[in-house]
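Supplementary material to the annual report.
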Amino acid sequence: MNDVTQRSPLADPAWHYLDKIALEDLSHDDWVMLEGQRSAYLARHQAAQALRLLSAGEHDPCFGYQVNNYRHCLQSATMVLRDGLPEEDVVVALLHDVGFIACPLLHGDFAATLLGAYVSERNHWMLRHHATFQNLHSPHMPGVNQHERERWSGHPHFDWTAEFVARYDQAAADPSYRCEPLQTFVPMVERIFSRKPQDRRSINQDKP
Ligand SMILES: [Fe+2]
Ligand SMILES: [Fe+2]
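Predicted assembly:
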């Protein structure tokens, strides 16, 4: 601990702080110290921060659907949970639209990037492509090719993505549905983010 704890209201005496600012000034020992603290910090804050991204919209109004994005995500996760699917699928359902408002056009990529290091390739692929699969259920949406998903026909994760969208996404906007509270899912999200991360940074976004 150094006097940074006096200079910043967000400093926490539980952590050691650098007394330098620019990365180019950090020594090898500085980096060792930072990396040594990083995993403990993520264990404490990563899942909670991902959940806060979702709950940021809890009280926001909706623009035409009967539930807002937060309630849609809760319903999706609750339906997956009640169907007895694996915990990873529940967490993926909970966060599949976490970027729907802040990053609408690429919200599938947003969720895939958020969770990609911690989930199966099956769910990583589903998150990236679920919005395109929704086209099938939106036949009257202007400018949409309802069958665009067919370009991935035969892909090993096609059927799961189609099933997720059909059963747990396109109709998960029912204001009368009794969702589990977010608290139900918190330990599940914590367990998924506590997995050893896989490095998927090299995945080409244009690959099928
Ligand atoms: Fe979506
Ligand atoms: Fe959705």
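The first helix runs from residue 4 to 7.
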